[in-house]
Amino acid sequence: MKLIGMLDSPYVRRVAICLKLLKLDFGHRPVSVFRDFEEFRKLNPVVKAPTLILDDGQSLMDSTLILDYVTAIAGSAVTSIPDRADDRLRATRLTGLALAACDKTVQIVYERNLRPVEKQHEPWIDRVSVQLLAAYAELEAEVGLATLPLDAGRLGQAGVTVAVAWRFTQMMVPKIVVAAEYPNLQSFSAFAEQQPAFESTPPE
Question: Which segments constitute the GST N-terminal domain (predicted)?
């Protein structure tokens, strides 16, 4: 298998870390959807990162769908969603909030970095920032209520996604999401980022 995309994307990094936790062999090709658009288009005409190219040449898109597939073929519970209803609900909720935080961070970055200054729409940025802060407020409260597993083998998709989202947001918009206001997320992220699968997969 070959994973296509840059590790500064939280979606690509999320998949790469889970693949390592699942102990699946894969290659990584850091192709940018911006700088390397034509090269990416040859690999996947849709130009969507992450793209996972399977050994038979078929390709998969969307980090959640990719993880669903690779977890099934690995036959491992390491990155699966728990079977028990209450645990499954919490994992799904945490994952949804973390992905929402990623989405809103990306929207702010695109507005600030890709759109000309004279065309940037401050009311839109304000609205997205409110959504971003709401996602992190919910995550901080959730992690405070019940700590995520401090065991790399039990992180699951939820734990990986929360940690990856937090690192991404702190890289991109630390002045909007002030780290000191989220001690539970800071503590959990610090633990996760020390794990081999995270350390060997730094955001580029």
Answer: 1-78
The position carrying tokens 């990094």 is 13
Amino acid identity for residue 126 in this structure: D
Half-sphere exposure of 59 (CA within 13 A, CB side): 19
Q: Residue 152: pLDDT band by 50, 70, 90 thresholds? A: low
**Whole-number average pLDDT of the chain:** 92
What confidence category does residue 78 fall into, taking pLDDT thresholds of 50, 70 and 90?
low
Tokens found for residue 56:
């038979």
Instruction: List, in order, residues 6 or more apart from 99 with CB less than 8 Å away.
Output: 64, 161, 165
Q: Which domains does the chain have, with CATH numbers?
A: 2-74 (3.40.30.10), 85-195 (1.20.1050.10)
Q: Facing residues of 60 across strands?
A: 52
Tell me, rounded to whole angstroms, the distance of Cα 65 from its chain centroid: 13
N-to-C CA span, the chain: 21
3 state DSSP class of 57: coil
DSSP helix/strand/coil, 80 = coil
Tell me the torsion sign for CA atoms 67, 72, 78, 81.
positive
**Predicted TM-score (pTM) of this structure:** 0.92
